Amino acid sequence: MQQQQPARCALRAFLLVRRLAGRVRDAPGRRHGSNLNQPLSGNDCPRPGGIATFMRLPYAASAHGLDVAVYGVPFDCGTSNRSGARFGPRQVRCESSLLRPHNMATRAAPYDSLQVADVGDVPVTMYDAQRAMGDIERFVRGLLSHSCVPVGIGGDHTTTYPVLRAIKEKHGPVGLLHLDAHADVNPTMMHCEVAHGTPFYRAVQEGLLDTRRVVQIGLRGSVYGPNEERWSLQHGFHIIQAQECWFKSMVPIMETKVLPVLGAGPVYISFDIDCLDPAFAPGTGTPEIGGLTSAQALEVIRSCKGLNIVGADLVEVSPPYDTSGNTALTAANLLFEMICVLPGVKNLE
């Protein structure tokens, strides 16, 4: 009997690998009922094992047949301070193995409602920022050609700019819910137009946003001068500074100041992890004290249920400064919460 034990273990390992391979190969074809893709359970494979996709969902080589496509952008060449966000997509995916498929608080069941898969990373160049923007835009345009919702893992905030270019081609100018410590509306940084502090200036200049439906939450810290906020307000942005959120639930703020502005039109959500206080998310390139708590972030995202969300991203996780892994884990949770509020997600009965 003892001699048979290694053979049994080997057989079980072989069957598990074959099962995982089947999940990858068959992902695009699963559309209805039990055929919807499910994250690999920790009861079927230990959490450190399996393929490191988001929540260990199947990998899909194409967005064909998907309702939601999760993708990574391993790019941080627009970073002005602490680099490392290029490693964000991989680390967020690794930490996401801790998550389970149903939302206990909201009862959302996204993987019982929508066909979701991880479509891998944008093959983005690290050597030419302008060319990198084209790489990202083409990749996301390809996802949108299949009429799915793209959910991105950054990467620095530069990466949102080309995504919005692709989104506009599909949906026209969109409303924006932007959570960040910084406004990211600089015309240039070090005389360069493409950087993580310029995406929303570029987006306004190119008509990518419906500026009457832009809300920025969490802005704080020191600035170069009054022009940042003045420019945003002149273009119709609605700003909720972090100090307006201190010691408060975000639910009333969302109900009175945010949701009425975003309205019924298409909305893009862009969450810079430095919106959170460094106590909750230290692993980021430009941390600012006095930010939102992780609980407030949950309130913000959960309040978005019912919006016409056409895309989302979470950016600026820098694993080299995230020694505990908690920043990436928080990011993974927030991405899951974003998927939970997408149109078409049903609740558990």
UniProtKB/TrEMBL annotation:
Highest taxon of source: Eukaryota
CDD domains from the UniProt entry: Agmatinase_PAH
One biological process term in Gene Ontology: putrescine biosynthetic process from arginine, via agmatine
Entry GO MF terms: agmatinase activity; metal ion binding
Cofactor (UniProt): Mn(2+)
The species this protein was found in: Rhipicephalus zambeziensis
Keywords per UniProt: Hydrolase, Manganese, Metal-binding
Listed Gene3D superfamilies: Ureohydrolase domain (3.40.800.10)
Amino acids binding Mn(2+): 157, 180, 182, 184, 272, 274
Listed name of the protein: Agmatinase
Pfam families: Arginase
Comment on bound cofactor: Binds 2 manganese ions per subunit.
Keyword Nucleotide-binding on entry: no
NADP as UniProt keyword: no
Family: Belongs to the arginase family. Agmatinase subfamily.
